[in-house]
Every structure is written in structure tokens, then in C-alpha cells.
UniProtKB/TrEMBL annotation:
It comes from Flavobacterium rhizophilum. Residues 47-66 bind DNA. SUPFAM superfamilies: Homeodomain-like (SSF46689). Residues 24-84 form the HTH tetR-type domain. It holds the Pfam family TetR_N. It comes from the Bacteria. This is TetR/AcrR family transcriptional regulator. Keywords: DNA-binding. InterPro entries: Homeodomain-like_sf, HTH_TetR.
Length: 223
């Protein structure tokens, strides 16, 4: 991934932000420290005032980049899914067997993420933890339909459709590829959450990972 991300800028829908945070040192600091702060105190307790104190900058300077904390969260989740899309393309490029491509894809989207040192202002391991706990907050709002029309979720939908396409390569007669793709991605986030907080509701543990579960599932469903 170092080769890919050192030469490619992840593109986020311009409707999500007021000023591109990737365009300045302050913007990148806002992204970096917001991830750290949300992980520490949770999205509900997170405010631009607290973030401003953390980065030693006026709260108003953050509002020059994002209208509100919801759009900041949409930006962070969009960045994560765009990064995952590049990983998907890069790590499956040399796999010609559809089953191998699907197994690699499922592993990629269900495993624990490690920090990519080539993106100094984003800690992907911490960002994944925010995705696990808070991604659905970007969707479960009264404004979801309008935001969808404005392209807020285009990257996430593109990721799901890529996975769906690989599923159809493995079994073209399977009637629910989109549903299976979205179930794998969102279900894995939920299994990670249960593993961390509500252990009696999942078989995933230190010995059994969400990847083990979903690899077993897809191979049984698609055979």
C-alpha cells in the first residue's frame, strides 16, 4: 500500500467539507487529532470546541473545514472506505482465480487493520475502531436520503458493488450478491463490536476471528 498511497490522493466528495483538509497542515492535523479524540472520548462527547483545545487552535478554524461534526465523521468514514478500496484493488490485482479473489477480499474487509505508515496524518488502526463503533451513525439520520443524493456515500457503495462483482464471478447464479456483500462488510464491523463489548452474542474471540466466520459463510453459501 505504500506504493499506491504515495502516488494517489484519496478523493472525497466535495459536498462533505468546506475546505479540503488534505490541502493544509492544519487540515491534516484536524483529521489526525479528531481520530485520536473520538477514539478516546467517543463521538457523542466529541465537539469542535474540545478538538480546538486539543490542537491549540480556535474552534472557528475547524468550522472553516467542516460544517459540523457529522460531516467530519462522514469525511473520516469516506476516507477509510476509499483507502480500503485501494487496498482491495492493489491486493487482488494479481489473483486470477475468482475464489482466491473473493477469499482475499473477505479477509481484507473482516480482519483487524494495521496502521499504514505511509499516511502520517491518519492512523488507520484507530480509524477502523471508529468505523466499528460509529459508521452507522453516518447513515442512520433523517437526512440520509438527501445526503445520498449529494454523493456522501458514493465511495462506500462503490466498495460494496466491487465486492458484489467478485461474488458474481464466483457464482453468477447466486441471486443476492449485493445483499451478501453489504452483509459481509457491515456484519464484520458488528462482529468486531460484539467481540469487544458483548462477547456472549458472538462466537468470535481471540481464537476465532470475524474473518474465520465470514470465510466459512461465503464458501458454504456460494458452493
Amino acid at each position: 500500500m505504500r506504493i499506491v498511497l504515495s502516488n494517489v490522493k484519496l478523493m472525497i466528495n466535495e459536498n462533505v467539507y468546506l475546505k479540503d483538509p488534505e490541502s493544509s497542515a492544519l487540515g491534516k492535523k484536524i483529521l489526525n487529532e479528531s481520530i485520536q479524540l473520538i477514539k478516546e472520548i467517543g463521538f457523542e462527547a466529541f465537539t469542535f470546541k474540545k478538538l480546538g483545545q486539543r490542537i491549540e487552535s480556535n474552534e472557528s478554524s475547524i468550522y472553516r473545514y467542516f460544517e459540523n461534526k457529522h460531516k467530519l465523521l462522514v469525511y473520516l468514514t469516506s476516507w477509510y472506505w476509499s483507502w480500503m478500496e485501494y487496498r482491495l484493488v492493489f491486493e487482488t490485482a494479481n489473483l486470477t482465480n475468482p475464489k482466491d479473489r473473493l477469499n482475499k477480499t473477505v479477509s481484507l474487509f473482516t480482519e483487524e487493520t494495521k496502521d499504514d505508515e505511509s499516511t502520517e496524518h491518519i492512523n488507520e488502526a484507530l480509524l477502523q475502531q471508529i468505523i466499528i463503533s460509529d459508521f452507522t451513525k453516518t447513515l442512520l439520520t433523517k437526512e440520509v436520503d438527501e445526503e445520498n443524493r449529494n454523493g456522501f456515500f458514493v465511495i462506500y457503495k462503490r466498495v460494496i458493488h466491487r465486492i458484489s462483482g467478485i461474488i458474481k464471478e464466483v457464482n453468477s447464479s447466486y441471486p443476492y450478491p449485493d445483499s451478501l456483500a453489504s452483509t459481509i462488510v457491515e456484519g464484520a464491523l458488528h462482529q468486531h463490536f460484539l467481540k469487544q463489548h458483548l462477547t456472549s452474542l458472538t462466537n468470535c474471540s481471540d481464537e476465532i476471528s470475524p474473518s474465520d466466520f465470514y470465510l466459512d459463510l461465503i464458501n458454504k453459501v456460494l458452493n
